[in-house]
Amino acid sequence: MRAPSCRRGDGLRTWRLKAAVHYTVGCLCEEVASDREIRFSKQTIAAISELTFRQCENFARDLEMFARHAKRSTINMEDVKLLARRSNSLLKYITEKSEELAQFNSEQRAKKRKKLEEENQEPVEPAEAAAAEQDNPSL
Amino acid sequence: MEGTSGGFRKELVGKLLQLHFKDDKTKVSGDALRLTADLLKIFVVAAIRSVRQAQAEDLALVDVDQLEKVLPQLLLDF
Lengths: 139, 78
Hints:
- The complex is a heterodimer.
- Chain A is elongated.
- Chain A contains five helices and two strands.
- In chain A, helix 2 (42-69) crosses helix 3 (77-83) and helix 3 packs antiparallel against helix 4.
- Chain A is mainly alpha-helical.
- In chain B, 60% of the residues lie in helices and 5% in strands.
- Chain B has three helices and two strands.
- Chain B has helices spanning 10-18, 30-53, 64-77; strands at 27-28, 61-62.
- In chain B, helix 1 packs across helix 2 and helix 2 crosses helix 3.
- Chain B is elongated, with a radius of gyration of 16 Å.
- Strand 1 of chain A pairs parallel with strand 2 of chain B.
């Protein structure tokens, strides 16, 4: 696979990230290609990859601004949903995904609570269970 | 997503976003990272599908020309 192009001043960190994006994009292209017996040229994969990398910059800036607008320093799912606002079908898809994630989280918390209760043999406050299962900010 | 199993790892998405934050204090919740990873995957798949559809003839090889044709619409949706 051709290496991603880098501008002067791009650090090693940027290069590595571009390479990681390139790899993921390549994998997705391969999946589609194998389904339909077509091939994607290296230039096309590289172009989509570069496009995706640049789109991340837009996403990051917007997300930061949305969170800041809401007087938060941690970006949450509501901010990400705003990113998808321009297309109805996109927004619908992302909203469904966010609901799945929220559902998954509450199921996990319920499981933890049940486990704690069984271990301690006494009822546990929902807040305790939530703290035990806290979704730590990743950055 | 229908038919595809590949995708962006949470950690990668985190680092990609972090690269462009203006404020050091800005963080991203785990759920937001997963959701952003989904969004990025759709972005890529949309680009791939648009390119495929933009083929006038049944080309076996999809080239940058097709991508250039669909770029404006793709970016408008995002």
